[in-house]
Amino acid sequence: MDSALPIADRGGPAQPLLLAKDLRKHFPVGGGLLGRGRKVVRAVDDLTISVAKGETLGVVGESGCGKSTVARLLIRLLRPDRGTLVLDGDPVDEPHGITVNELRRQVQMVFQDSYASLNPRLTIGETLAFAPKAHGLPAAEARARTRDLLAQVGLDPESYAERYPHELSGGQRQRVNIARALALRPRLVILDEAVSALDKSVEAQVLNMLVDLKSELGLTYVFISHDLNVVQYLSDRVLVMYLGKIVELGPVEAIYGNPLHPYTRALLSARPSMDPRKRTHEAPIQGDPPNPIDPPSGCRFRTRCPFAEDVCAAGEPLLTETPAQSVACHMRRPGSGHSKAAAA
Amino acid sequence: MAIQSPSIDLGGTISVLLGRSGVSRGYWQSVGRRLRRDPVTLICAAILILLVAAALLAPWLGLADPYKTSMLRRLNPIGSPNNLLGTDELGRDMLARLIYGGRLSLFMGVTPVACALLIGGFLGIAAGFLGGRVNMAIMRTMDVFYAFPSVLLAISLSGAMGAGAENTLLALSLVFIPPICRVSESVTTQVRGFDFVDAAKASGASTLAIVRVHVLGNVLGPILVYATSLISVAIILAAGLSFLGLGVKPPEPEWGLMLNTLRQAIYVNPVLAALPGVMIFITSICFNLMSDGLRAAMDVKA
């Protein structure tokens, strides 16, 4: 495979670029000798995500809700316990599909910690050239690619290619990380808290650069963050996660304008607003999320939900289509038995 | 640092070609710069180089025959006209025997550590990088060796295989594999957890390329520093085995063996009897101080 050529769109614009079906990842913790009596953390539980071509899918949720696990599953840094990945119509790691390596050629990731994600012993140029060389690009071409990449992320190739990570600021390092993710000319870039560690002014610069790169290179983003404002700024669609499950999914205007799930509402009301008329009315949720080792039965949010009823403990709410978005809540499912739900 | 990743040399070459070598200092350049400002490490290195050079060049230094005994000149004191450092219990020249003895003693110190570094380092890096069951299998095997104190293990191994330099070498190598393996495993596990290794995996590079470029460069430094500190232990252990009669056989000059045979002279000429011990002491303390200096110089935060 010649990595110099960008990969052409094959399935047409309507086919999802990346489709993850029923992804599940449980991490075993502790347990007795020889793995008996082990408990599992249900980090990601039967998650189905589809990423459309050219969109930015924002993923939000509290710490520990499985956002980063999703990112690592999408790029196969973690092997899912079950579930399939389909990249532009090609199943990944299946008899008639594409290999994991081919998936990684087209899907790349930017990590949160800009320092830990750069090898301290390599110059920026060497870091950027590593992946293209590993895919068989000759050294001279890899060097040229490195210079293009640095220019693309707004760093002067002359002065940065030979520097070491510790000589760069946090913002510069994160630009290098983004450049590395682009080194293989991917179609989808997963940004896992990619700007969260930066201070606000640098964060804004990097965000604007990401927007420019997206239109310039025709990229698709999965943007994972706990920062609701940043997600609103960047995303076309937003996915809200709670304890390894999707609670709400829809266009950014719908999620931010008319959130339907009590959790989404609580999240949005907890964020500070500059407008005094939009001050917090609903009480933000209390306490920490329950332990994912032993999540609550039925709806996982019911232990913190002000509207919880018996039906919420009895059955798990399914993701239900509403006119604007999808939501997993018994109150929004007609005939569910919840007192606030419409009759069937 | 012959084993460092070639890409670092490449970076250096590029910067030299472009005439920009002053712009940015590479990691090893900055280590070298810090070492040059550390007088203790420099002095230790100089002493060690002197010892090694003297041992290697011994036949051409115009020394007396280290095997030639003389019943007339036994236990001559230090500063005797023909024997600068006196003579031993059989009238052999001490200076010649100490310098010739360095050949075996230094060899016995460095070789087992080098062998153990190859085997233990490989096993440890493999265990650390692959993790899971491979790690379990390798590290639990090493734990079995840890059940025995290292001195006891060396004594029992060379006792079982019989005296002689080769068996001592083998026994010492086996003794040093577990600690080097454990250190390699722990630093590799640490490096493996960094995002840059994940990023390299995500780029679809082969495991070999990831280990070569991203793991070795970050792991070899600490492992080498640790191995350097083991050289002094190896010299002392080898000397100890010789002292017990399990190592080198007489009349071969070797510091530990010399200590053993000069033992009877301790009441007659205690300073003379202590000379081989002084050599062992100087060599091992130099290796220890040098490994400390290396550790400090390789600390990026320093």
Written description of the protein model:
The complex is a heterodimer of chains A (344) and B (302). Chain A has 344 residues and is of the alpha/beta class. Chain A has one domain: Rossmann fold (3-Layer(aba) Sandwich). The termini of chain A are far apart. Chain A has helices spanning 67-74, 100-106, 124-134, 139-152, 157-160, 170-182, 200-217, 228-234, 252-257, 262-270, 310-314; strands at residues 18-29, 39-51, 56-60, 82-87, 90-91, 107-110, 188-192, 220-224, 237-242, 245-251, 320-321, 326-327. Helices cover 30% and strands 20% of the residues of chain A. The longest helix of chain A is centred in the middle third of the chain and has 18 residues, at 200-217. In chain A, α4 packs across α6 (170-182). Chain B has 302 residues and is mainly α. Chain B has a single domain (29-64, 78-298), classed as MetI-like fold. Chain B contains eleven helices and no strands. Chain B has helices at 6-17, 27-36, 39-56, 94-130, 132-146, 150-161, 165-192, 195-202, 207-243, 255-261, 270-298. In chain B, α4 packs antiparallel against α5 (132-146), α9 (207-243) runs antiparallel to α11 and α10 (255-261) runs antiparallel to α11 (270-298). The longest helix of chain B is centred in the middle third of the chain and has 37 residues, at 94-130. The two termini of chain B are 20 Å apart. Chain A binds chain B through residues 72, 75, 77, 100-102, 104-105, 108-109, 111-113, 116-123, 125-127, 130-131, 134-135, 159, 162-164, 166-167, 177, 180, 183-184, and chain B through 5, 7-8, 10-11, 14-15, 18, 20, 23-27, 194-196, 198-206, 209, 213-214, 217-218, 300.
